[in-house]
Amino acid sequence: MSAEAPALLKDILGPRALETIADAGSAAAARFDRAAFLRAASDGLEALSIMERVRHIADALQPALPGDYADRLEVLRAMAPRLTHGFQAIAVTEYVARHGLGHFDASMKALADLTRFGSAEFAIRPFLAADTPRALAVMTRWTGSGDEHVRRLASEGMRPRLPWAARVPALKADPTLAAPILEALKADPSLYVRKSVANHLNDIAKDRPDWLLARLAAWPQDDARTAWIVRHALRTLIKQGDPGALALIGVGHGAAVRVRDFAIAPATVRLGDRIAISAEILSDSAHNQRLVVDYRVHYARAGGKTAPKVFKLKTFELAGGETAPIAISQTIRDFSTRRHHPGRHEVELIVNGRTMATAAFDLLPG
């Protein structure tokens, strides 16, 4: 018997989700037109991707919601707690994005209210694009909220490279515009918020690495929460072996070590097989050394080209004169963001930003 195919992401917003949203609307307002919503939301749904469904459902709410815009916001607020999945709530916040730009202040307040049910990070982008200074001022005030969801929205909604989201021209021109927000949240007590701040800073690293390094160098890391953000914000630069990034986490560029027995097994695999990567790292120093060990796979591509990707392996302290074994395994399988091609795949072992050893495996066709 063949294995059951995995559910598609878009099916999160399938017919059952539409019924849930319709039920929430009917419970929130007696005049909610359930039939009109289901008719509009169901029409053409099957062909749409997940984010297209978000927008489609938001537009389907328009003929169903009663009253003027202020009335409709109150209905949305009453609907949100009755929804059963974050993406259902994201579709509700998207209504504000698509129909509320003419009511800026009321819409921004509604997004802050709704974000705890399903993040409003996508819905806030049109408001940022329409009036960046005005939206930034509101979002900066949100950093003082007692609700971690609102504080997170202040950071996440302004990410320069927020996945799946529309780009904001002002953030593309200057990805550092949210600096006041990031400063305010650099020691936030919520891990949910700190993850967003770190991801936001990592976005900036891809366009303005010098700015990022200078900013983070000025942040005192005696607070464990700030130190956590700094480490995770630097992950792209650390993978690139950037000396400034390594220095900020207390690691020198390069290390007094040797690598022995770097190997990949098996040396020949097919799609779906697992490889094991192993080595020993020997200290050539009498002193302890902090090591960041990564590995870079050069994925084969059509026409003999390759595409490198760096993976985290291990960060640890190596005592003077000691030897440490390292090992990790990885399944060679396709993802929506990465398709494998047959051919030779070179692998580098990287210690503190420097390639210390190389090996390879071959991926067979079929």
TrEMBL record:
Key words of the record: Glycosidase, Hydrolase
Residues forming coiled coils: none
GO molecular function (one): hydrolase activity, acting on glycosyl bonds
Entry annotated with the keyword Lipoprotein: no
Enzyme Commission number: 3.2.2.-
A Pfam short name: DNA_alkylation
InterPro entries according to UniProt: ARM-type_fold, DNA_alkylation
Record bears the keyword Hydrolase: yes
Protein name: DNA-3-methylpurine glycosylase
Organism: uncultured Sphingopyxis sp
